[in-house]
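Hi everyone, sorry if this is the wrong subforum. Our group has a chain we'd like a structural model of before ordering constructs, and none of us has done structure prediction before. Sequence below.
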Amino acid sequence: MPQEYNVVIADTTCFILLSKIDRLHLLQLLFKSITTTNIIAKEFGKQLPDWVLVAEVKDAHYLEILKLEVDEGEASAIALSFEFEKPLLILDDLKARKVAIKLNLNFTGTLGILLKAKEAGFIDALKPILQEIQLTNFRFSEDILRQILLIAKE
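Answer:
Right subforum, don't worry. Here is the predicted structure as C-alpha cells:
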C-alpha cells in the first residue's frame, strides 16, 4: 500500500471503536506505528500498545485556538499534525473533519481504516465488522454503509 504521509495521527474515537471490536491491531498492521497526543491517550483511558507513540503538542497557543472549534482531543490531533510533514489524521467527528478540510489536512476515519485493512488483505470481509460496529454507540448512516460495501465490493 503506497504511503503519501510520513506520520499517522489517531484521535480517541478510532482507539475506542477499534478496541471495542477487538481490532486495534489493524492500525499496527497498516501503519507499523501510530502517533497520538497525551490528551488523547488520557481520553482513551486504557494503556495504549507500545507501537502507539504519545507526543505532546508543542504549540499550546494553537491548541487553544483549535479548542474553540472542536473538543480538546481532536484539537490536539489537528495541532500535532502541523508539527509533521505529510501527516494523515484519523478523525471521525464531523466538526473536526470540517476543520481539517479548512486547514487542507489529509484525513480519513475509522471506517476508512477498516476499508484500507480490507484492501490490504488484513481482513476478509468488511460487512460483518460493520454490523458489529452498529451494535456499539458509533453511528453512521445506511448510505455510508452502502458506499463502503460498494467500494469493498461486498
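For your construct planning: The radius of gyration is 15 Å. The first helix runs from residue 12 to 20.
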